[in-house]
Amino acid sequence: MSVGVKNESSLHRILKLHYAGSGGTTETPVGGFFADGVRADGEYIEIQTGSFGPLKKKAGEFAAKGKVRIVHPIPASKMLEICDAAGNLLSKRKSPRQCTPWNLFDALVYAPELPLNPGVIVEILMVEIVEKRVNDGTGSRRRKGVRIAGKDITAFMERIVLEKPRDYLFFTPFAPEEEFTVKMLARRAGIKTQTAQKTLYTLAKMGVVRRVGKKGNEIICGIAGTKE
C-alpha cells in the first residue's frame, strides 16, 4: 500500500478506478513512485485535486516512460449534506460557490512548465459532487466543529483534454493580433482578477502568451506562436 492511501478520499478512489479502466491497475509501483493508475494500454493516471507542485518530479519520471494523464476534477456544482454524529441528516443545501475550467490555474500555477513535458496530458474533469459533513465537534474552528467526511461524484459533466501547449489557447479569448492585460482577461472571461493573474503567469511560462510591453503597473501580453 502506498503512503497516503489510508487518507484517500472517496472522490480520489472513484476517479482512479474509473480512469484505470478494465484491465488496468491502481497504486502501481513505477520507479520510485506509485501511480494512481496504469491503464491496460500503458498510460499512467494521476488524479490531482490540489496543487500540481508535488507532481513535478513524479509526472516527469512517468512521462519519460510513456504517456501520463493528470486528471484534475473541478466541481461545477456542490451539494452540502450535514449529518449529526449518528448519521441523521440535519440539512442539505447547494453551495453558492461555482467553479469553472479556469480554476485549473489555481493548481497549475505551482508547476507551470509541467505540461511542456512530452507525454503529459492534463484533463479537466467538470463534475457535480456531494460533500458530506458531520457535526460532531471534531471539525475545524472555522467550520464550528463540523468536519468533512467525504466527497462523492453525482455526475460527470464535461471533459477538457489538453495534450499540447497550443491546446491552452482555449484560455486566451482574444484574436491573434490583440494585446491584453490581466484586467482585460478577467473581464473577457468573466473570472476574478486573481485567477486571470495565475492564468497569464502560467501561460507565459508555457510560451502560449508573451509579454510585449508595460503600461503603468500593467503588463501587456499577446498570443505567442506555439509550435506544438
Summarize the structure.
By secondary structure, the chain is an alpha+beta fold. The chain is 21% helix and 38% strand. The mean pLDDT is 91.
Secondary-structure map:
Layout: H1 10-20, E1 25-30, E2 33-38, E3 44-47, H2 55-63, E4 68-84, E5 89-94, H3 104-108, E6 120-135, E7 146-162, E8 179-180, H4 182-189, H5 193-206, E9 209-215, E10 218-223
Parallel strand pairs: 3-4, 4-6
Antiparallel strand pairs: 1-2, 2-3, 4-5, 6-7, 8-10, 9-10
Helix pairs in contact: 4-5
What does this structure look like?
Strand 4 and strand 5 (89-94) form a beta hairpin. The longest helix has 14 residues, at 193-206. This protein starts with 9 loop residues before the first helix and ends in a 5-residue tail after the last strand. It folds into two domains: 1-163, Trna Endonuclease, Chain: A, domain 1 (3-Layer(aba) Sandwich); 165-228, Winged helix-like DNA-binding domain superfamily/Winged helix DNA-binding domain (Arc Repressor Mutant, subunit A). The mean pLDDT is 91. The protein contains five helices and ten strands, in the order H-E-E-E-H-E-E-H-E-E-E-H-H-E-E. By secondary structure, it is of the alpha+beta class. Helix content is 21%, strand content 38%. Strands 1, 2, 3, 4, 5, 6 and 7 form a seven-stranded mixed β-sheet that branches. A three-stranded antiparallel β-sheet has the order 8-10-9. Helix 4 packs across helix 5.
Beta-strand content: 35-45%
Question: Uncertain regions: pLDDT < 50 for 5+ in a row?
Answer: none
Which CATH-level-2 architecture of the largest domain? 3-Layer(aba) Sandwich
Compute the separation of the termini in Å. 38 Å
Q: Which percent range fits the helix content?
A: 10-25%
- What is the name of the CATH class of the largest domain? Alpha Beta
Number of continuous helical runs: 5
- Cα gyration radius (Å): 20 Å
* Number of domain modules: 2
Main structural class? alpha+beta
CATH topology title of the largest domain: Trna Endonuclease, Chain: A, domain 1
Order of helices and strands: HEEEHEEHEEEHHEE
Overall pLDDT metric: 91
Main sheet attributes: strand count, strand direction, barrel closure: 7 strands, mixed
| Overall shape | globular
